[in-house]
Amino acid sequence: MKILVIRLKQIGDALISLPVCKSLKKTFPDAQIDYLLYEHIAPLFEHHPAIDHLLVITPEERRRKWKYFQKMLAIRRARYDMVIDLITVPVTVLMTRLSGAKWQIGFDKGKWRSRLYNTPVPHPNKSGSLDAKLAILKGLPFDVEIDRNFDVVLTPHEVSAMRKRMAGAGMDLRKPILLFSPISRLGSKTWPADYFVSVLDYCVSRFDAQAVMIWGPGEREDVQRLVQQVKNQDRVFATIETTNLRELAALSKNCVMFIGNDSGPRHVAEAVGIPTFTIFAPFTGKFAWLPHMGDRHRGVDMCDALDIDKQTWYERAHDFRSHGDRYYRKITPELVIRKLQPMLNDFVAN
Known about the structure:
The protein is of the alpha/beta class. It has helices at 11-27, 59-63, 65-77, 90-98, 129-134, 156-168, 193-206, 220-227, 245-253, 264-272, 286-289, 302-306, 310-322, 324-328, 333-347; strands at residues 2-6, 32-38, 53-57, 82-85, 103-108, 119-122, 177-181, 210-213, 236-237, 257-261, 276-279, 297-300.
């Protein structure tokens, strides 16, 4: 059996969708499982045992409709038995339809394009993001053994090469190194910088730790300005530039814990196996985007800040999105430190 899974989104969405591929491979170990992603995301999934081939959409294909159509024809020529579309936008629906696969599976979101699938699956609107992706497997005509974990497979050389870079940058590898992500690609998902500085100062001074700051394209100067406000600047490193996602994964693997905004790097940190603490934007909730919430993965959101339950959050979600800046400041440094403290005791102090 040949199966293609389509997930044309960014880092976090691609990683959270990986359990679909893993579940299919666990159920059908002899099947060919291919994963279609944007080109810059695909390297994260190299060497993964659940994926046989990585297919990519290049920036040029995204810009030129003719190139995109050629990709669709290539998928059709591959003669897949099953195509699973996890995004349900016009181009992926058409791609799925033109594949000619026996099973053309996608979410029914109540729009005209969902009718182009020959196997539409009801979309679980209020499910957690990972469970929502896995719900697509309910549309298959056979039972699937579910695997809810997502991971990045690194080589020992990648991890050791990054460790040497960190030592060369002046880090003391005998002391705990915390990975901080203070900037999000979406400004609306970035916790106030002055709040972040307070938490950063607390962590490095209270636990005799070091901090590695990470950033994305166009964010380096913002991070450097933030570092200038930190009291213990000699313990904060913003000089390790990761040029691709595998380097980011290797950097994460060499740290003891991630602390930061809800963004792609947070998912990468979880995927390489380190504990994570996430500060969620007012219009997102940890109940949806923290699929493995527990001792190793925790966070803080508006439910914590306002002491409300999930249903109340849904009722006020529009207000949280419309006035995000004001509500963000209700997630105070004191609240974050209080929620973060047990993890620091478990994974940094020991």
